[in-house]
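Person: Please comment on this record:
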Amino acid sequence: MTEIEIQAAKAEAFRAMHRGPKILLLPNAWDVASARVFEDAGISAIATTSAGIAFTLGYPDGEKISRNEMLAVVARIAAAVKVPVTADVEAAYGNRPEDAAETARRVIEAGAVGLNLEDGTGDPQHPLTELTLQLEKIAAMRETGAAMRVPIVLNARTDVYLRMLGWQNVGMTRLYAGWRHLGTQERIACSLRDCGTRNRLDGWFGT
């Protein structure tokens, strides 16, 4: 098998882990040493932590680190372990679908097979990326994976609950839109604490 075929197979294996009978645990690595510890402990896949990587390099969280520096660490981690690696790429390091596509390309080139895309902006006046733009970014990332022949596992995250914005219906709409219209494989309602909302989401997605 070629390297790209091996990476594509690893992506499919990682996707299957999300649908398996066991709960998928994704410990967050911030460097090669932590990733190797997780792999040696028997973890089946590893996620990177954008905050952890930023902190170890002297940056605060929130896209203060450059895409180049972030993905350089992702590449080292992916090269050091045999299990699938999924990369936390914050909000994709840009406000355009083209930026998201470039980030997805770089994630795949780094050897990762999944990525996490956030919709938080860091702007208190406009805390969430406009939904249409977010869907365009998701579409651009999926198209990049298809063009590179690596079916990257895209995790769409909404920060409605993490920021405690109180917009329950907004959060559910954003999660549903990403799944229904663009086929995002996974959804995260980060820091969702309300059992009623969680149960409604479980019913929608059948999870």
